[in-house]
Amino acid sequence: MPSTKSQHPIDISIVIPVYNEVDNLEPLQAELDASLGSFAGRYEVVYVNDGSTDGSGQKLAEMCAMHPDIVSIDLRRNFGQTAAIAAGLKHSRGAIIVTLDADLQNPPADICLLVNKLEEGYDVVSGWRKKRKDTLLTRRIPSAAANWLISVVSGVHLHDYGCTLKAYRREVIDEIKLYGEMHRFIPIFAAAAGARIGEIIVNHRPRIHGKAKYGLMRTFKVVLDLVTVKFLLSFRTTPMYLFGGTGFILIGLGFIVLMIALYNKIFHDISLILTPLPLLSANLFALGAQSILMGLTTELLVRTYYEAQDKPIYVVRQIHKGRNHQ
User: Fold this and answer.
1) Which of 21, 274, 301, 320 is deepest in the core (most CB within 10 A)?
2) Best CA proximity match to 25, nearest among 61, 77, 51, 53
3) Nearest to 82 by CA among 187, 195, 184
4) What's the pTM?
């Protein structure tokens, strides 16, 4: 595994969210030590105890006392995987960040595969559990459907968005703020900022200790989150295009309905009082106007957001300067 050249005090940070995985922690650390033992640079393992109730926090504290390269962060309660990953990212110091689940289903030995792939010029490398060892009906089929939908909507084609085993360059991940359950969409946000996204097949093992924390309901949450992601990517700086466009469509439909009502009145002598078309037309006009006003409001909010924080609407990859500009 090549050493990374950077000004960061740590070359690689392994960020691991933990929720009730006490029986997996020591075997996981043993595998991490074995897989990273030949690494020429410095590394750290950042565990985030996400409100575990099975003694995981105490076990991590004991491991920290025995291992100089371990950091353990205890959250006050269970905030969820995205929050735990965000906490780990904030407290990590590596030039390269690798996220990994604590359930031992992804072998830590595959970390070197992702880091080597980054060295090919990628900014984000995602693991693909091609031979996934999970239940077919409740995990693999819903996951395949969700991955296909995410790829189609986002335009970033990955086989396995749900695989936590991913590697990121620090400068890419620092630009992304995580909320809700958005950790699985980090490659999409990174791609929107111009990052190069790669994917590599990784190994996957059956769970031996502990219980899976997610079921079929997670797929529905993914779909709802995808709506948010699509809005943020496509209309974050131009919300008027969405709300205003929708408003004009509704007003146009209202005008068509009104014309139909007038046609029936003039040529078929159908009273406007006896048909719901005038009321439908008025409602469509009202909804259209409200949508346009909402677009204006969101435009003001967007401008306030960017101007108040002096945030640019672009991302610079690199700047090359001539000799006279050094």
Assistant:
1) 21
2) 61
3) 184
4) 0.78
